[in-house]
């Protein structure tokens, strides 16, 4: 488990030359965001514990070997972080290239087109070509699970960032989702590989809200397209933050 930020202790660091003071325990990614420096990310989200799996948020820290993940690295006094340089840009493009090589290229007809973090990040890191084929991506042909009345789960679009698994556990405390297998065989599964409707899913929608692709998608969006705007509210009974879509 990660250490929670300690507001009683302040740490000052420099991110791209900008001095920032934040509570001890804050991640480098969140510290940078406070200075309006947005580090590319896929597996991190503002309301979940950092996981450090996608490696898109890789940075350089003076005195450190390698390229640590900004989302899982806590700040330290006097730390000097670089978030942008040609080497980091190349590393991020290579990471994104691997993700895109394992993802269908149907953006123009995808219901998430224009509202897809994978698409946004591919643009943000300047990906222009993918040198790899789709060999090994056997899940691309997997059939979408439409058993749930409100959303679908399409494993062919899944990047296995685990945000849905963590949202289910951390936001809702339900543990209906898990990751099965490794490498190309890794996949998100409901229960023991059941249909969503037969799992412990309580239909809170936390997984759908956090999904960065069109893997978990509201049926209403698939049928009617993206709403013009949405309102997020959190009631006193649960922490999900329901998203009401308006025409
Ligand atoms: Fe940091 Fe994915 S956002 S490793």
UniProtKB/TrEMBL annotation:
Domain 2Fe-2S ferredoxin-type span(s) in chain numbering: 9-87
Domain 4Fe-4S ferredoxin-type: start-end pairs: 149-180, 193-221
Domain 4Fe-4S His(Cys)3-ligated-type: start-end pairs: 87-126
Family stated for the protein in its record: In the C-terminal section; belongs to the prokaryotic molybdopterin-containing oxidoreductase family. Belongs to the complex I 75 kDa subunit family.
Protein name: Formate dehydrogenase subunit alpha
Native source organism of the sequence: Exilibacterium tricleocarpae
Lineage, opening ranks: Bacteria, Pseudomonadati, Pseudomonadota, Gammaproteobacteria, Cellvibrionales
